């Protein structure tokens, strides 16, 4: 489904768990099985949420959600900030920028 906008629907199971699923508008079911308790979860009415499934913003959201439960392993100390004088630019347009 590369490049298509697919609506995101919210479902709620009898146990109270809510989850989202993508369906085309023509194929959205009234209920689906809950991934946690496998009971039928009914679609609930929410605001319109359209997602660009292969956009970089959507991929960033997925990786951010994933990092909450699967954080990257740190193998070393962070790099030290560079100290010393900042490089001098000779571009005349940079002289118009505000000074820090």
UniProtKB/TrEMBL annotation:
Q: Where is the composition biased (Basic and acidic residues)?
A: 63-72
Boundaries of each Putative regulatory protein FmdB zinc ribbon domain copy? Answer: 7-46
**Database matches in InterPro entries:** RbpA_sf, Regulatory_FmdB_Zinc_ribbon
Origin: domain of life: Bacteria
Q: Which Gene3D superfamilies match?
A: RNA polymerase-binding protein A
Q: Where is this region: Disordered?
A: 63-100
Q: What is this protein called?
A: Zinc ribbon domain-containing protein
Give the species this sequence originates from: Micrococcoides hystricis
């Amino acid at each position: 489904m590369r490049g298509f906008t697919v609506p995101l629907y919210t479902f709620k199971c009898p146990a109270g768990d809510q989850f989202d699923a993508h369906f085309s508008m023509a194929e959205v079911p009234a209920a689906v099985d809950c991934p946690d308790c496998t009971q039928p979860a009914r679609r609930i009415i929410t605001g319109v949420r359209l997602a660009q499934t292969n956009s970089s913003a959507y991929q960033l959201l997925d990786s951010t959600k994933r990092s909450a439960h699967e954080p990257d392993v740190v193998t070393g100390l962070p790099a030290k900030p560079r100290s010393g004088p900042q490089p001098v630019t000779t571009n005349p347009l940079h002289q118009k920028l505000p000074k820090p």
